[in-house]
TrEMBL record:
UniProt organism field: Azospirillum doebereinerae
CDD domains: GST_C_YfcG_like, GST_N_Ure2p_like
Record-given protein name: Thiol:disulfide oxidoreductase
Transmembrane spans: none
Domain GST N-terminal stretches: 1-87
Domain GST C-terminal: 90-216
Amino acid sequence: MIELYFWPTPNGHKITLFLEEAGLEYSLKPVNIGAGDQFKPEFLAFSPNNRMPAIIDRSPADGGEPITVFESGAILLYLAEKTGKFLPADARGRKTVTEWLFWQVGGLGPMAGQNHHFVQYAPERIPYAMERYVKETGRLYGVMDKRLSTSEFLGGAEYSIADMASYPWVVPHERQQQNLEDFPNLKRWFHAIQDRPATIRAYEKGSAVNAAKTPTVNEESKKILFGQSADTVKR
């Protein structure tokens, strides 16, 4: 049994995509980041960066004590290695998939996240910051589009954890001021993943976690989400 500590955000959806595709038994443990659940001591005990997602694997492959994993990229690698799925066994294939996984973790996620912040949530409209991150998001979409002009998926011919990592960050493309019509190869890839039964199930389960459709970011939650500092960690 995998316990997934989750809220329906792009990083959270990465893990439900894997779990649904792999058919692993799991339970969702809501972590309402807008309400500050990520600061609860019991969560910080295994997710010290006060971020979700995180998992507890109650049935690790070695049969030992439960294993905890935080950070979405690390979780995807852990689950791929545990199951032998969505990560090639050969060195060259594995290298390519991990390149694109790390590309998402180090590039697409952070840049699109800053896009969201300055375009949607920042208390001040800062034109330079907005333009900077919208353009960088577009550049990264262009990188994906070029890659997908010669490859069915980001990691090669087969669907992999690289695609699971990137897809949720393309879902809000309109909020990021990106038009998929400008990226035909990315559009083809996006709709192919969107139509997968496991993707549909993953997003349905994610929606059920926040059945009230309460916005994660509102005026009150901004103080929690955007007001953190070193002092927050020291508490």
